[in-house]
Amino acid sequence: MSQSKVKPELSEKDALKKEVLADLNRQTLKKEIINELQKNDWKISLFDAIKHPIILLLVTFILTNWIATAWQSREWDRQQSRLVQIKGVEQKYEMMDEIIKAVGDNNSTIIELLGFFLRPPEKRSLSDMGELERKFQDARRQWNTTIATVDQKLQIYFKSPDVQPLFRAVTQKQGKIILNIASLHESFKSSNGAPDTDSFKSLIKDTFDLIRGSEELKKLIDAMKEEVRQDVEGRTSSAGKV
Fold first, then answer.
1. Per-residue pLDDT tens for 51-72?
2. Residue 230: pLDDT above 80?
């Protein structure tokens, strides 16, 4: 009789345990679901925010501004490169003009001296010779100064291997012309203004021939122009590929 009463009590206790365990499982599952929902909440909020018209407008503005800034920077770089190219070409043409002018000014004074030496003896005075001598010395100093400056510029701005040798040929020729004038001047002074010898006249003719022959100068200018042409064509091609 006592055993039959114990069994129902045990069954009721087991049932209560099962109910409590089931309730705990439900609570645990509920917490897991809530945690998972909370984790995904920010993703849902971010997705909703991105879809908002104001956010889309802001993103579009930022992207457009970035693209415009990048394009403007690239265009500015291109313009600066073009300005550098133009400046470089101008500098090289200025050097060509500087060389031509230096040779021309030097030769102009020398031709004036040669004309004086070719005058008849009665039309050659020592006072005239003194004035021409001063002009010649001034022209010679100016020539030396200009050529020294141009020589440095050529080494900096011109890369062609032909330019420097041709420039030296021009300066060597001018140097020979100046030496001829110095010899003529010495002969004139040593003969008291009457150096009308065959060697004197021959030296005048040789000096005139040197001045007339401008092959070295022409070759130099052509070589300089060729380098400028290559620079322009090379940069133009590079700009077209940008």
1. 556 666 666 767 777 777 766 6
2. yes
| CA neighbor of 228 nearest in space, from 81, 80, 86 | 86
d(CA 132, CA 92): 33
Structure tokens at 87: 């400046």
> Which residue in this structure is represented by tokens 């020729």?
173
111 CB-near residues (< 8 Å, 6+ apart): 208, 211
227 exposed, middle or buried (CB, 10 Å; 0-12, 13-18, 19+)? middle
Spatial neighbors of 151 by CB under 8 A, at least 6 apart, are: 167
* pTM for the whole structure: 0.62
Could you report the per-residue pLDDT of 18-36, keeping only the tens digit for each? 776 666 666 665 566 556 5
Please tell me the predicted confidence (pLDDT) of residue 167: 94
CA distance 132 to 111: 11
| Identity of the residue numbered 212 | R
Averaged pLDDT for residues 200-220? 90
DSSP reduced 3-state for 14: helix
Calpha distance 139→136 (Å, rounded)? 5
What does each C-alpha distance from 198 to 3, 187, 204, 218, 240 come to in angstroms? 165, 12, 10, 32, 65
Q: What CA–CA distance (Å, rounded) separates 148 from 165?
A: 15
Q: What are phi and psi of 233, to 5 degrees?
A: -65, -40
Contact 211, 110 (CB under 8 A): yes
Structure tokens at 20: 């409590």
